[in-house]
Amino acid sequence: MTCPTESGCNCEPAGGETVQIEIVPQRILSPETSEKLLGRIYDCDGIIRVMVQGSRLPDKVGYGPGTGEAVSHPLKKSIEVEGQQVNMRVTLSRLLVEVDSDATADEIKKICDETFSFPFEFYKGVFFKKYSTVVDYAKMGPDPDERLLGMTDPKGKLDQIVFIEKEGKDSE
Asked: Origin, by domain of life (predicted)?
């Protein structure tokens, strides 16, 4: 594959490796902006996995005078991604995306430029673990799904991970 830019660089990752990107907006995203961003990212071809990170939005007050009371937070809403309803359990303040090529990463950067009206940071690097950790082994056993490596919280439950699979496009 040749470079789509005029610089003539070799944008294809060596050995068919994937490209991992980190998007860090300078603001915590609202559920509406999160839904718009994630929807546009999932519309791209070549998305392998996406992980949303941020501060936890609890269901109930854990301690203090209101212990056990339901938390009513304006950012705790349900969003739709790829036709699937997802309850936001965290604020979207950092997004990790693994894609199959630099061209897809550049497309995601363009999407961020169009979606955000404020500054954001965009990094390429290694952000997902490539090998099973002790926590992965304890949570998922000796043969874990490679898409889940490094995505489990040691204190979290596996049922809190949301899978959103892209539906195949019908070709007529």
From this structure: Archaea
